[in-house]
Amino acid sequence: MLTVNNLSIKYQDNSVLDGFELNLEQGEILALLGDSGCGKSSTLRFIAGLDETYQGEVELDGVQLSKNGQHLVAPESREVGMVFQDYALFPHMNIFKNISFGINHLSKSAQRKQVLELLAMIGLEGSEDKYPHQLSGGEQQRVSLARALAPEPKILLMDEPFSSLDKSHKDHLVLQVRQILKKTNTTSILVTHDKDEVNSLADKVGIIQNKQLTIN
């Protein structure tokens, strides 16, 4: 499903990654670990098409998205979903509008069907008319996940999405997210520093060290 070849990232004269290689199959969940500044988030941003880089290629489901560090396909056309640490929900939109934001091209009835199915999947049935501030942090992160999954992306990129939650809420949510990703057969990459998240969520573990990636 995903192939990243020869990804090298430099910030001015500082080389962060040098020859990063990654292959993921359909439905696999990879946890990406490494010291701060080792290039974890930068890798996600390159896959998503948000940042260009020194060199590297990305292929998703047989389509080449980037070559020689430059992007051939715009971020909005990549079929890539992203979930961030800060939820990034629109505070002035209710939950229905937040989740349906990326599927406005569908008919109203198709949008409603998709949103209600996702709300049921994340355990928030009946919350479509609420606003983000009316939900807990864990509930907001579930809505953020549903919004990312609504367009049915080919890959989901998650950048420390659980780090702002307390442990009592986080442990349960991590297990829920794994169940959702497996149910939808969504290929995913999780950037985290938390080994408990890795053990509960990931099929594979990638460690970035000495500018290279090792998969366990």
Proportion in helices: 25-40%
**CATH-derived topology of the largest domain:** Rossmann fold
Regarding CATH, which class of the largest domain?
Alpha Beta
What value does the Rg take, in angstroms?
17 Å
Overall mean confidence score, pLDDT: 90
Strand count, sense and closure of the main sheet? 6 strands, mixed
> Which range does the strand content fall in?
25-35%
Query: What letter string, H or E per element, gives the SSE order?
Result: EEEHEEEEHHHEHEHEE
End-to-end CA span = 19 Å
* CATH homologous superfamily placement of the largest domain: P-loop containing nucleotide triphosphate hydrolases
Overview features:
216 residues, alpha/beta, Rossmann fold, 2 domains, six-stranded mixed β-sheet, five-stranded antiparallel β-sheet, 31% helix, globular
Quick synopsis:
This protein has 216 residues and is of the alpha/beta class. It has six helices and eleven strands.
Protein model, in words:
With 216 residues, the chain is α/β, with parallel strands linked by helices. The chain folds into 2 domains: 1-79 and 153-216, P-loop containing nucleotide triphosphate hydrolases (Rossmann fold, 3-Layer(aba) Sandwich); 87-151, no CATH class. The chain has 6 helices and 11 strands. Strands 7-8-9-3-10-11 form a 6-stranded mixed beta sheet, with helices on both faces. The protein is globular, with a radius of gyration of 17 Å.
